[in-house]
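Module 6 notes. Inverse folding takes a fixed backbone as the condition and produces residue identities as the prediction. Think of it as a translation problem where the source language is geometry and the target language is the twenty amino acids. Below is one complete input and output pair. Work through it position by position during the lab.
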């Protein structure tokens, strides 16, 4: 996909699955299964913090970087992103879904916490693997920038849907305009990386659909109220039109 020399089949069939298993084991050992577990800063303290420790997080990052470098050096950068970044992202999502957040007024924002963590490990794997293969510029163009664009689309789409779910048509018009502008801007970034209109629209709208699905998962799990389907439809449609408009505008100019 983005490597000059194709690795042998044994390398691909052994390295990537092995790295995925090791990444999963490292996450299960070094990070708490409940990402929202609050613990006192000190015995008897009323100030709470997350269950993550600095040494566990740092060691986990080192392990992922070593695995990404290994797969990127002797395999493919894309395989490193999927195996080393994708597996922790999926496990993190499962971890969030199996622990209902506290009803503190911010519980509905939990998908953004997962999204930021997922993009961080995926982007980190792409950078390390591309650097290990001595092909970081190409890896950035073909993997890193599209990945960051997808993350930006999902995050902004989640926020715009929150605007669209407000009362009245004015809120939905405002959300649609914002999503159109965001889709157009992200489309320019993808076009600069050589992506076509179909691939770009699929990437931005697919990212918004993904975060919508993740957000909707809380309904059957915790009995929350269902997300506003029309608001999501407005946001997804606006992203698709905004991204495609980049190529339409170029065709007329």
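Target side of the pair, the amino acids:
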């Amino acid at each position: 996909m983005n490597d000059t020399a194709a690795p042998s089949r044994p390398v691909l069939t052994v390295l990537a699955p092995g790295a995925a298993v090791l990444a999963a084991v490292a996450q299960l050992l070094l990070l708490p299964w409940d990402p929202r577990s609050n613990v006192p800063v000190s015995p008897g303290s009323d100030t709470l913090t997350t269950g993550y420790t600095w040494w566990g997080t740092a060691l986990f990052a080192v392990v992922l970087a070593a695995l990404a470098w290994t797969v990127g050096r002797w395999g493919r950068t894309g395989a490193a992103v999927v195996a080393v970044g994708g597996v922790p992202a999926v496990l993190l999502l499962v971890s969030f879904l199996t622990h209902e957040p506290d009803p503190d007024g911010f519980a509905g924002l939990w998908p953004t916490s997962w999204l930021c963590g997922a993009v961080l490990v995926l982007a980190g794997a792409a950078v390390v693997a591309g650097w290990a293969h001595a092909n970081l510029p190409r890896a950035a163009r073909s993997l890193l920038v599209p990945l960051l664009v997808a993350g930006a689309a999902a995050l902004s789409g989640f926020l715009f849907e929150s605007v669209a779910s407000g009362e009245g048509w004015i809120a939905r018009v405002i959300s649609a305009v914002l999503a159109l502008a965001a889709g157009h801007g992200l489309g320019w970034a993808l076009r600069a990386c050589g992506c076509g209109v179909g691939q770009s629209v699929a990437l931005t709208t697919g990212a918004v659909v993904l975060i919508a699905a993740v957000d909707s998962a809380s309904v059957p799990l915790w009995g929350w109220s269902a997300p506003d389907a029309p608001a999501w439809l407005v946001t997804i449609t606006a992203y698709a039109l905004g991204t495609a408009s980049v190529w339409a505008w170029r065709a007329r100019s």
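Reference fact for the lab report: DSSP finds nine helices and two strands in the chain.
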